[in-house]
Amino acid sequence: MKFMLMMHAPRGKGDWAVMDWSPEALKAHIDFMMKFNKELAEAGELVGAEGLDMPSQARIVRASVNGPPEVTDGPFAESKEFLAGYWIVDVETAARAHEIAARASAAPGPKGAPLNMAIEVRQVMSGPPADV
Description:
Layout (H helix, E strand, L loop, with lengths): L1 E9 L12 H20 L3 E6 L8 E3 L7 E3 L8 E10 L3 H12 L12 E6 L9
Antiparallel strand pairs: 1-5, 1-6, 2-5, 3-4
């Protein structure tokens, strides 16, 4: 079963408070994520993982009737948290996806303490069979 694990980071001041962390704290966080991803890949559970740009860089795109697509910088729902990155894992059970999400949530923060970030876990659904 495939699951998408979505890391929600606290907004804080500006786009993401991580930009205010010390270089050492940011390095520890990135090192944790790289080791974590490597372990998932070696276990054959990692399908993909990416960090996302800041919310201020997000755009809403809609098709237009005649002409180029409509691209705007919102509207976005007001939120104190935003999607900072994601993993797609292929595991045997939802319980395993939850274990992985808990490890990701424990990534170190500015003083080395676990951030306990919210990680949303949702199963990736497949489409109908091709012969339907």
